[in-house]
Model the fold of this input.
Amino acid sequence: MKDLRIIFMGTPEFAVSTLKEIIEHKFNVVGVITAPDRPAGRGRKLQESAVKEFAVANNLKILQPTNLKSEGFLEELKELNANVQVVVAFRMLPKAVWQMPALGTFNLHASLLPQYRGAAPINWAIINGETKTGVSTFFIDEKIDTGEMILQKEVEILPEDNLGDLHDKLMNTGAKLVTETLQLLKQDKISTTKQIDNNDLKEAPKLTKENTQIDWSRNAKDIKNHVRGLNPYPTAWTLIQNGNEELKVKVFEVEIEDVDHNEPLGRLVVENKTLKVSVKDAYIIFKEIQLPGKRKMEVKQLLNGFNFEEEAKVL
Done:
């Protein structure tokens, strides 16, 4: 049995579940590394990361470096005398950091590696219409998400799962996978497998203004997957030409009306308190959207006080 001294690195809510699981399993966490407090909201008040809030509540030692390569931070890290580092939803680590502990630094990634390496694996799995994904633990090396794998666990993607649903499933499954990985390290039973690259690998690049815009030339199923893969964050969007106005609209939820039609591509149709768009193989019905300067609302509500012109269309 090895005596583990763990440093945990993470920032958002996704990482909190794992840190909580580690603490509940009575592992020895000697330090928590998280992002510096950042100004947020209208008052620009400094806001602590979700991981910091949890660490403070549990009296854990916290470091919030702005520069992971600074000598001061590396010294503080060394003084904690950890022999393993666990990384969940944090930033890229310099070699000086991930090489430091004797038992290595391992990462939790929200995909079945080598598929969906990159910044947004949960979003892209849904956007691409996958029916399963999962979580992987792997030892960090010099490239992004390419290190030797330790454990994996599959998770089903249901047809109506959106990003929020799948995020929570993977968060909870991933937390358990990390503690299983730590148990193996503790018992000196760790074994790894190399990631094998092939031509069918799908990537999970950072989400941008460009790749979150809805492409109305695609089929209805692809459009629906795109929307649910970005709900609730960062949200799919489209431009609507309504008379002389061009509106940038956030789209949270849609449904498919599977009927043939002769409408031109992209025409907006208001009918029986519904708002729908003609696409090449069906209609896409808007269920929940947000107009500029307005709150998010169901389309039924929106149509009570907002008029779309006869010639309105999506761009």
Remarks:
- The longest strand covers residues 245-257.
